[in-house]
Amino acid sequence: MPRVPLRLIALGAITMLLAACGAAPGDPSASAGSDGEQVLTIGAIPDQDPQVLQRQFSTLSEYLGEKLGVEVRYVPVTDYTASVTAFQRGDLQLVFFGGLTGVQARAQVPGAVTLAQRDIDAEFHSVFVANTGSGIEPIDDVSGLRQLAGHSFTFGSDTSTSGRVMPQHFLLQAGVGVDDFSGEPGYSGSHDTTAKLVEAGTYDAGALNSSVWDELVETGKVDTSKVREIFRTPPFHDYHWVARPDIDEQLGDGMTDKIRKTLLDIDGSDATEKKILRLFEAGSFVPTEPGNYAKIEQVARKLGLLH
Q1: By the 8 A CB rule, do 66 and 265 touch?
Q2: Which among 168, 305, 106, 251 is positioned nearest to 95, based on CA atoms?
Q3: pLDDT (tens digit, 9 = 90+) per residue, 141-170?
Q4: pTM given for the model
Q5: CATH superfamily of 125-232
């Protein structure tokens, strides 16, 4: 039997996949409803278990759809970089980015609009955690992070603000570089995975999003006899909603402002709004502006994550 070139096999597989999905990313029909009407596609960085994100953003999508009078579709992505790429290409029109990915997205899409952040994002924190058998003790200030030298360590995603960028910033302030760890640092891909890896002893220590850590502890999803918080960082701005500049053109004049107002008006006054705020671990959504993320941009450039 003649051998089929690998490139033809790959091409056939891609064609079949796109046919199964109904449309390729970037194809205008990918953001159209069943009746051909345009929809608002929303997304987020995949910083937690996909099932958690699905509950979170499906609930919000339904709520936004009712308030905005358009179909709202949550589109999951595979990693942090994919969220920025999808936003740049127009496959996602509204995204709940982290601090760094939001900076990256606005750099790639001139005119992108910063809409809102959660109240907790105005003073967000990273948490350093350690396996209780590692010998690492709780830390009082940034300088105490020096004791992590010589231990194995994992970040979250390599472009996570609270799981990599700001933790590495504070480590450098303490005089600890990635070469000071025992072995290469890990990159778990998500905050809950970081906690589990440290709990299992795969790494002596790690850093993650404070709100995810607090939720894991509160719900008993981590064993605090095996992994514990050792340091909570000084505050910084983090997660925020960013909209593409062409939303009004696609969905009608004033739609961007309407989305902003809808987010800011979520105050927990009914059961659905209470559920949304609980899922987002927030008391409300509040106004924000690009300048709030200047520090993150500065740190990211220093670490070589922005060019």
Answers
A1: no
A2: 106
A3: 999 999 999 999 999 999 999 999 999 999
A4: 0.82
A5: Periplasmic binding protein-like II (3.40.190.10)
